[in-house]
Predict the 3D structure of the following.
Amino acid sequence: MTSLEHLVGRQFDLCELKRRLHSEYPRPPPVRVTSTGYGPCLLVSRECASGGTRLARLIGERIGWRVFDREIVDEVAHSANVRRQWIASVDERVRHGWSEFWRKLAEGEGVGRETYLHHLREVILLLGQQGEVIILGRGANYILPAERAVSVRLRAPLEVRVRRFAERERVSMERARRLVEQTDAERAAFIREAFGRDVDSTEDYDLVLNMDELGVEAAAEAVLAKLQERLGVQPESVPCER
């Protein structure tokens, strides 16, 4: 039993979910499934080095929700029954040419686009069924029902993010800029190729926050207020530390 299946327990039959996914969502376009049994969830899309991980962890501590980021790769690998490194390659190395990369993987030992997206969707839906989770990236806001989640997009000026990245990773500003821009491009390409959407389209989010103007603590308060307004999530009475 995987960690996600353990969390879900007996709430629903995984086999039934797979059958429904196969019949209803045979292709990778965006899906909006019924909200019955889903959520509440917080879905965080972010520019590289905008503070998404720190924000997610802070909110998770405030309301007792589990944060999922790299863990999703492991669960997709388990679901697809392929080696983790192949899934990780598809998940992270989406730069410059999804189609070509998927074609090469499909012809070899790896996993192709359709397979990856199918199992990614399964895992995201599984987390949505569990509820009370915070999911970083992976296009979760294009998979889970919007009425049972709050979707947030985090931004910050490029120069600010480059400086943060350079300090965090202890690399030169030149290398930091190259890696930040590359990561932004990869994430945008994934959303465009997998879901046919523009990652910067504000209509896909409930909140779009400038992390340079707000800072992590103030942004957390804004997100918590939205969670309470839309989904009735009650944060602890103790405010975020400032």
